[in-house]
């Protein structure tokens, strides 16, 4: 079973940057694709970005395209989400999740890290 722990969230001003980390343990990290989701108060959880097992392919939703960068370091069992030019609408709890099978469900989830962008 894989355990995921997110970190790096916090309070940041409009236009600022944060780098979120997702540290994995308990499994072979490189066997899983990984995604970052977020959920704002009163809203549904949404996919922000995902990355393939090797890190060679990435996908961004419209909310993250151009401002966010997803990456991973399989040697360190860690994935990252670099977020630049943050906006108030980026305020949410951010979660990482693993996917063992293409198109399959997300198997394991972290507990989330809060990102608050002040206006």
Give the tags:
single chain; 119 residues; mainly beta; 7-stranded mixed β-sheet; 4-stranded antiparallel β-sheet; globular
Could you characterize the architecture of this molecule?
By secondary structure, the chain is an all-beta fold. Helices cover 0% and strands 51% of the residues. It has strands at 3-7, 10-13, 18-25, 33-39, 46-51, 58-60, 68-73, 78-83, 92-99, 108-109, 113-118. It starts with a strand and ends with a strand.
Radius of gyration: 13 Å
Largest sheet geometry: 7 strands, mixed
**How many helices does DSSP assign?**
0
Strand proportion, as a percent range, falls in over 45%
Poorly predicted ranges: none
Q: From the helix content, strand content and strand pairing, which structural class follows?
A: mainly beta
Task: Identify the overall geometry.
Answer: globular
Helix-strand pattern: EEEEEEEEEEE
The pLDDT mean sits at 96
By DSSP, the count of extended strands is 11
Distance between the termini: 40 Å
Helix proportion: under 10%
């Amino acid at each position: 079973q894989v355990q995921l722990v997110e970190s790096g969230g916090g309070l940041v001003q409009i236009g600022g940057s944060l780098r979120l980390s997702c540290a994995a343990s308990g499994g072979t990290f490189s066997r899983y694709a990984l995604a970052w989701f977020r959920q704002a108060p009163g809203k549904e959880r949404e996919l922000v970005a995902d990355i393939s097992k090797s890190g060679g392919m990435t996908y961004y939703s419209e909310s993250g395209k151009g401002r966010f960068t997803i990456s991973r370091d399989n040697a360190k069992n860690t994935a990252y989400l670099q977020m630049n030019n943050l906006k108030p609408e980026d305020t949410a709890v951010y979660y990482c999740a693993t996917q063992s099978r293409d198109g399959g469900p997300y198997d394991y989830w972290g507990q989330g890290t809060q990102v608050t962008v002040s206006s």
